[in-house]
Write a structure and sequence with these properties.
Keywords: Membrane, Transmembrane, Transmembrane helix. This protein is mainly alpha-helical and about 280 residues long. The chain has one domain. Helix content is about 65%, strand content about 0%. It has 8 helices and 2 strands. It has a two-stranded antiparallel sheet. A hairpin with a 4-residue loop joins strand 1 and strand 2.
Length: about 280
């Protein structure tokens, strides 16, 4: 390994991705069709019975609990199984002795477990949701009753996450929330895989619950500092409206929470890298 290529070599990185695919190809080849089938069955069960109306009885916002559920389940299955070479002592030795740098091994797993998941899962959900909706309406709509058509509103990110606000800054902030919070969850699972190894799919989610408690405690503390005489500690209703940022539209407590989440994502990635570097040594 040449000194100038000790940190990162694109050819080695590609070989590392090929190695990972060869060892986990069954999981990768079955992941997308398996996820689509599971999501389709769940949505089919929960889709409503039609009623004679020109208005859809299932709005795009009704998909939100299901996309969140998918993030939880598939995030645990994919990010929770990061660094599969750590599942046994023999496999760990073999993985650490691969002719690749620590950064290349980290980046390969980051791309597969975090980047690809965050890009592919929303697309898979959108395709599955709308395909299932089309099939459901085709099977359940009487051919002579046109009023039953369109009873299920198709899924779009704009409608589901209310991204049609007149203020572009607010839309951008909503997008940041939608992306950052799931990313933090799988980033934490990515990190805990270096600690819990083969038990990460079970113990990793517990660490997420602890993190959620920390975020909740942080928000409650901010509420108390901003308005100590009308805080949750005194049993009163918590006011979230003031102060506001981003053109006086986004409450400061929400903005600061999102900034904290983004910071925690980077901390998880850096900690994972140094954990891997520690094992490499």
């Amino acid at each position: 390994m040449k000194k100038e290529n000790e940190f990162f070599s694109f050819s080695r990185f590609i070989q590392l991705l090929k190695y990972d695919f060869q060892n986990n190809r069954f999981h990768y080849l079955t992941a997308i069709p398996g996820a689509m089938l599971a999501l389709g069955i769940i949505l089919w069960v929960f889709f409503p019975d039609f009623h004679l109306s020109h208005e859809p009885s299932w709005r795009a916002t009704n998909f939100l609990p299901f996309i969140i559920l998918g993030y939880l389940i598939f995030g645990i299955l994919i990010a929770g199984n990061s660094f599969p070479g750590f599942k046994s002592k023999t496999a760990t030795i073999g993985y650490l002795t691969l002719p690749a740098s620590t950064f290349e091994k980290f980046t390969a797993q980051w791309v597969i477990r975090i980047l690809l998941f965050m890009v592919l899962y929303p697309l898979i959900f959108k395709i599955t949701a709308n395909l299932t909706a089309s099939l459901y309406m085709a099977f359940h709509s009487p051919p002579t009753a046109s009023d039953f058509a369109g009873q299920i509103e198709y899924f779009t990110f704009v409608k589901a996450f209310d991204l049609d606000q007149p203020d572009r800054a607010v839309n951008f902030f909503i997008c940041t929330i939608v992306i950052s919070f799931p990313t933090l969850g799988i980033s934490l699972l990515f990190l805990t895989s270096t600690f819990f190894k083969k038990w990460n799919a079970l113990l990793g989610p517990l660490s997420i619950l602890v993190l959620l408690f920390v975020i909740l405690f942080y928000n409650v503390t901010i509420f108390h500092l901003l308005d100590p005489f009308n805080s949750i500690f005194l049993g009163n209703e918590v006011k979230l409206e003031h102060p506001k940022v981003i053109n006086n539209t986004v409450p400061l407590v929400f903005f600061s929470a999102v900034c904290l989440v983004i910071l925690l994502c980077f901390i998880c990635w850096l900690t994972t890298y140094f954990r891997l570097k520690e094992k490499q040594v």
